[in-house]
Design a protein that fits this description.
Helix content is 34%, strand content 22%. It is α/β, with parallel strands linked by helices. The protein has one domain (47-340): Rossmann fold (3-Layer(aba) Sandwich). Residues 1-30 have low confidence and may be disordered. This is Alpha/beta hydrolase.
Length: 347
């Protein structure tokens, strides 16, 4: 009898040890460094990067966390940032100042803002995907062929497929003429897919049309409380360039943002809208701030177009409506990401 009990005890200990070994192995696997296939290690912050041309003339540059920071058990945010007209990917990433720099290097700093976001939110694999049209204008690129909007959709889905193992979703983001990329995507689909979880227009919704896009945007917002919208603009109709107006009263983002917000407020009647207004801003939010419209007043008649990005605008467009919104930074406040700027170089 004692021998039988001893045998049972030995078996139990053996099974317990095996279970512990499996747990340790699982822990090592989930915590191990993830080397993304085909990616190179950047000299800046050990980020994983890759560049390629997809479809006719779309330059794609993907910036992912370092191997040691990329975790398989975390959700993966793929933020597709469509570049503004006339800007290169290098300019958009930004860098530390150096003698002889083109001024474009210092007006967006999406690279540094990406790193700030990663440092602030450790709960996801945060990836910025830079999308540059070979024409340096998404408007002219889309007009070149009637199938270009479908090519935009194919590009988005291809990028999503690259990270299929890592629980990915898409967030569409843009500045200036980059908004045309988002509208091209919306034109290519009958309804906005559920893999899109956020849409952000940073002074980039020039192409908004109630009849063309209103119903799709409304249905997408109503489909899930996880779907978020962020829109920022300034009163460009009141801005002066060389002492003269350069945007018509209805041609800029100030008017388009008004139309967007008014449309959604009228159609989404169940939502309670909050309005904050002072001498500087008009701020509409709805549904626990998952829908936001920020409009900067402009009695001084300045041009705030790129400042909306530079002053923590990319950070705000990603964090709006989340627990990280406003933590350690202020939208349109002082820049908080200078320590994350990379040295002079090209990636």
């Amino acid at each position: 009898m004692k021998n039988i009990l001893l045998l049972i005890l030995i078996c139990c200990l053996s099974l317990s040890n095996r279970a512990q070994e499996q747990m340790n192995l699982s822990s090592r696997i989930s915590g191990k460094a993830i080397k993304l296939p085909g990616f190179a290690t950047s000299p800046y912050f050990e980020e994983q990067v890759i560049s390629f041309i997809h479809t006719p003339g779309i330059k794609v540059h993907i910036n992912a966390p370092a191997e040691t920071k990329f975790k398989k058990d975390k959700p993966t945010k793929l933020v597709l940032y469509a570049l503004p007209n006339g800007n290169s990917t290098d300019w958009t990433i930004g860098k530390m100042p150096a003698e002889g720099d083109d001024w474009h290097y210092h007006i967006q700093h999406i690279g540094a803002q990406t790193r700030y976001i990663r440092a602030s939110d450790p709960e996801c694999n945060f990836i910025t995907v830079y999308l540059e049209a070979d024409t340096k204008s998404w408007g002219s690129w889309r007009k070149a062929e009637p199938t270009r909007d479908q090519k935009i959709k194919e590009t988005v889905e291809y990028i999503l497929s690259l990270f299929s193992k890592y629980n990915p979703h898409i967030e569409l983001n843009s500045h200036s003429g980059g908004g045309n990329f988002i509208f091209g995507f919306m034109d290519a689909v009958s309804e906005i897919p559920d893999y899109v979880k956020r849409i952000s227009f940073i002074d980039s919704n020039y192409n908004w049309d109630n009849e063309r896009y209103g119903d799709k945007l409304q249905k997408w917002l109503e489909a899930s409380s996880d779907n978020r919208l962020f829109v920022a603009c300034y009163d460009d109709a009141n801005a002066l360039l060389d002492g003269k107006p350069f945007v018509s009263k209805t041609g800029g983002t100030w008017h388009r943002t008004y139309l967007m917000q008014r449309y959604l407020k009228k159609k989404m009647k169940r939502l309670s809208w909050n309005k904050t207004e002072n001498d500087s801003i008009i701020y509409f939010t709805a549904d626990n701030r998952r829908i936001q419209f920020y409009s900067r007043k402009n009695p001084e008649q300045k041009i705030y177009h790129t400042i909306l990005v530079e002053r923590n605008g990319y950070i705000q467009s990603v964090f709006s409506g989340t627990k990280y919104e406003g933590m350690g930074y202020q939208f349109m406040g002082r820049k908080v990401y200078d320590m994350y700027r990379q040295d002079s170089g090209s990636w």
